Amino acid sequence: MRTAPDTIKAYYNVCSHRGRRLVDTPKDARNARGKRMNFVCGFHAWTFNLEGQCKNILQKDDWQGALTDERTRLGQVKVDTWGGWIWINLDPHCGPLREYLEPRRQHARS
C-alpha cells in the first residue's frame, strides 16, 4: 500500500490476533483496490493503521496487559521499487533489492 506519495509498505494480509484475512478480494477480481486509512478485522474488529499498528482493540483491558504494540502490529513484508515495478519479498532476511538487480542491469547494457 502507498502510505505517502513516495512511500510503499507491505504487510501480511492477516490480523495478528486470529489470522483472519483483512482485505478480501471480490470473487471475480484479480486484486483489491481502494483508498483506506485503516484495516478492520472482520472477526473482532481490531483496527490497524497504515503503519501496521493496531489502534483499536475491543475490551483491551480483558487481556491484562498482554497485548503490546509489538505483539499486535501487522507483520511487515519487504517491499521496494525498481524499473517502475513494485517488488515484494516474503523472505525477512533478504538483501536489498538494488544490490541484487543492479548487476543484471549492467549486464543487459553490454
* pLDDT < 50 runs, ≥5 residues: none
Q: Return the CATH topology.
A: Rieske Iron-sulfur Protein
Query: N- to C-terminal separation?
Result: 35 Å
Number of helices: 2
Helix content: 10-25%
CATH architecture: 3-layer Sandwich
- Estimated structural class: alpha+beta
Q: Would you list the SSEs in sequence order as H and E?
A: EEEEEEHEEH
What's the CATH class, please?
A: Mainly Beta
Instruction: Please state roughly what percent of the residues sit in beta strands, choosing from under 5%, 5-15%, 15-25%, 25-35%, 35-45% or over 45%.
Output: 25-35%
Number of domains: 1
Largest sheet: 3 strands, antiparallel
- Output the strand order for the largest sheet: 3-7-8
Mean pLDDT: 88
The strand count comes to 8
Round the Cα radius of gyration to an integer and report it: 17 Å
Q: Can you tell me about this structure?
A:
- The protein is an alpha+beta fold.
- The protein has a single domain, classed as Rieske [2Fe-2S] iron-sulphur domain (Rieske Iron-sulfur Protein, 3-layer Sandwich), CATH 2.102.10.10.
- 15% of the residues lie in helices and 25% in strands.
- It is built from 2 helices and 8 strands; from the N terminus they run ββββββαββα.
- The strands form 3 sheets. A 3-stranded antiparallel beta sheet has the order 3-7-8. The protein has a 3-stranded antiparallel beta sheet with strand order 4-5-6, with no helix packed on it. A two-stranded antiparallel sheet has the order 1-2.
- The longest helix is centred in the C-terminal third of the chain and has 13 residues, at 97-109.
- It starts with a strand and ends with a helix.
- The relative contact order is 0.16.
- The mean pLDDT is 88.
